[in-house]
Amino acid sequence: MTKIRVAVIGCGSIAKHRHLIEYNNNPHVEIVAVSDINEARVKETAEKYHAKAYTSYEALLESENIDAVSVCLPNYLHAPVSIAALNAGAHVLCEKPMATSREEAEQMIEAAERNNKKLMIGHNQRFVSSHQKARKLIEQGEIGKIYSFRTSFGHGGPEGWSADGADSWFFKKDQAFIGAMGDLGVHKADLLRYLLGEEFVEVGAFVETNAKENINVDDNATLILKSTSGIVGTLAASWAYTAKEDNSTILYGEKATLRLEDDPEYSLIVQYNNGEVVKYELDGIQSNEDGGQTTSHTIDHFIESILHDTNPLIDGEEGKKSLQVILGALESVETKRIISLEK
């Protein structure tokens, strides 16, 4: 069978530690080309994967016959580069957050539809074993009605992992658009929508830059969210968890409490209100601390959706809904009001 010809645009850390490794491990993929404005970085990457190097993504899209593209660039470039790749006839896997505005997200979705191509957003938390098991338990009615939740995603900041360290684009508002809330918070907004199986209708937020110097994006954010059925809870995103990464989610239900990625040994613990406790030893969530994110299943799912012509789990519409939670949080901070997301 002919392999899917893939290009990776942006050769920073997420490309290096996830996209390129997972594409390389997929038997249905050939990495044809890579692009990055850093000439030394793109040449090194191209040599490693026996691909062609480009310092211009436009030249890559014009010169190469590409089936699929990963967009691993600063946030402000997600929409224009994804749209260019879709218009060039490639399926697109774009890193999160998918865009910097609702309008950009809608333009990406329109480009995918017009060109009859897949658009997937890299919300890898949906593929974590404990999260998938929790969703099944919820769907089966195992914990009954859900009343509340709290979720947190925090670590010491991207400077320890980003290709450019302390000079990373993550800290620059003109390139990142938002800080910890866009880097980490949008992941948890997407995860909660996936677990609860319903949308958020209201959001209030507090956002601060109080942990790092010489940055102009948020490094701490706390959101209060309300879902369609009245489930309320909190979402925290932070670059100030300096001792240890926290990527936990707790759901409080009528029959049980679910603790996801909250225990060092068991990735899912179910505490029933009759005193019974069930501990699931599943594949742990991957983190930067562990030195890689090489089997997130994100890339494999994207490739499968192309091979079998199926809709990816996180398509453009799903990506847009998760982005809108974060955009609503920003509006809440600016207006000091609770924001309705039913627009």
From TrEMBL:
Domain (GFO/IDH/MocA-like oxidoreductase) ranges: 131-259
Occurrences of domain Gfo/Idh/MocA-like oxidoreductase N-terminal (ranges): 4-123
InterPro entries: Gfo/Idh/MocA-like_OxRdtase_N (IPR000683), Gfo/Idh/MocA_Oxidoreductases (IPR051450), GFO_IDH_MocA-like_dom (IPR055170), Glc-Fru_OxRdtase_bac (IPR008354), NAD(P)-bd_dom_sf (IPR036291)
Pfam family, one: GFO_IDH_MocA_C3
The protein's name in its UniProt record: Dehydrogenase
Protein source organism: Oceanobacillus caeni
